[in-house]
Design the sequence.
């Protein structure tokens, strides 16, 4: 295994958990959205507003190709990155890919006040929740293609991080270890 890739819907804890896993293992941490923002010199929301979602998805695909050459990183993808089967095919074979899952109501609690999510950014609270639930439903089949899952609903970060570190250190991720 070359890297640890954390994926899943917005609000599942990819960045927070990824930073702690990286700290414990002594690996560099990369949040793909942050890296895209840094390279583009603007926020994801600005990219969506100016150039549209297809342009952003191409930036993600290009970055997945680049990440395929990296080794020894903990990487948090964007929530839609591995929905693209080509991105998943590019990253899954040589990396420990874990999908972080979370109950929809808990996700709503975590994301209700977020203003930096372009695909669920409605000003109306009810519409924002409906958008979140629609998007989550649309992505479920893509997330189901990912072999390993961890549930972050109860949010015991220390236990989740410990499980990921254990999988990495013991190599059980290579043997199809299920993390449910």
Sequence:
């Amino acid at each position: 295994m070359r890297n640890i890739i954390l994926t899943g819907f917005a609000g599942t804890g990819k960045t927070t958990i990824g930073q702690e896993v990286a700290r414990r293992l002594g690996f560099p941490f990369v949040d793909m959205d942050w890296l895209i923002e840094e390279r583009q010199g603007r926020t994801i929301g600005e990219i969506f507003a100016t150039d549209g979602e297809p342009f952003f998805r191409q930036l993600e695909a290009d970055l997945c190709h680049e990440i395929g050459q990296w080794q020894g990183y903990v990487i948090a993808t964007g929530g839609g990155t591995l929905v693209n089967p080509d991105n998943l095919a590019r990253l899954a074979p040589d990396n420990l890919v874990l999908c972080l899952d979370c109950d929809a109501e808990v996700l709503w609690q975590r994301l209700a006040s977020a203003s930096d999510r372009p695909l669920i950014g409605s000003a109306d609270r009810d519409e924002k929740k409906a958008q979140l639930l629609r998007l989550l439903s649309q992505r479920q089949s893509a997330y189901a293609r990912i072999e390993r899952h961890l549930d972050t609903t109860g949010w015991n970060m220390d236990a989740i991080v410990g499980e990921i570190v254990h999988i990495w250190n013991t190599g059980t991720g290579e043997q199809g270890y299920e993390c449910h």
